[in-house]
Amino acid sequence: MNFMSFFARRGESASVAKNRLQILLAHERMGDGSDAKLISELREDILEVVRKRMNIDPDAVRLEMDRSGDITTLGIDIELPQTKN
Amino acid sequence: MNFMSFFARRGESASVAKNRLQILLAHERMGDGSDAKLISELREDILEVVRKRMNIDPDAVRLEMDRSGDITTLGIDIELPQTKN
C-alpha cells in the first residue's frame, strides 16, 4: 500500500526539514470512475485553503497519487517556510 | 503513532462501508504552540471544501486528533452517501 511508504518517508525526512505539513486523502471507489476526478478536485481545493493560511512555495509541494485495489490515495507533502498568522 | 492505527482501522471497516473519504493531516510542530490552532483551522477549511462537493451527514464525520512527539495529526473519516456532481 502506497500510503504506508508515504509515512515511512516522513520519518526519514523528519530530521531534515522540521516544519512540514502532510495531507493524505484516501477514497474508496464508487465504481463509476469518479474517484480520480474527485480526488483531483479535492487536491486543488485543499491546496487553496492551505495557501490562505501559509506561504507555500510551489516547488515545495510534492504530490503522489496511487490507485490500489478499491482505494485511491493522494499524498500532499508541503514544506512550510512560515505561517501567515 | 496514532496515524498507523487510523489506517489499520480503515482496513477493518472497508468491507462494512464501501464509500468513504479519509483525510489525514500531519504537521510537525513549529515550537510556538501554533500547530493545534493551525490544524483546527485547516480541519474547518477542508470540511467546508468537501461539503461543497459531497452531501455529508454531520453524524457521519469522525475526527481524531493526536499529539505525539513533534507531530500533531488530525484524522477525518467521512462516510459518503452520494456525490453532488
What can you tell me about this protein's structure?
- The structure is a homodimer of 85-residue chains.
- By secondary structure, the first copy, chain A, is α+β, with helices and mostly antiparallel strands.
- Chain A has a single domain (2-83), classed as Cell division topological specificity factor MinE (Cell Cycle, Chain A), CATH 3.30.1070.
- Chain A contains 2 helices and 5 strands, in the order H-E-H-E-E-E-E.
- A 3-stranded antiparallel β-sheet of chain A has the order 1-4-3, with helices on both faces. In chain A, strands 2-5 form a two-stranded antiparallel ribbon.
- The longest helix of chain A has 20 residues, at 34-53.
- The radius of gyration of chain A is 14 Å and the shape is elongated.
- Chain A starts with a helix and ends with a strand.
- The A-B interface holds A 3-4, 7, 10, 14, 18-28, 30, 34, 38, 41-42, 45-46, 48-50, 52-53, 70-71, 83 and B 3-4, 7, 10, 14, 17-28, 30, 34, 38, 41-42, 45-46, 48-50, 52-53, 70, 83.
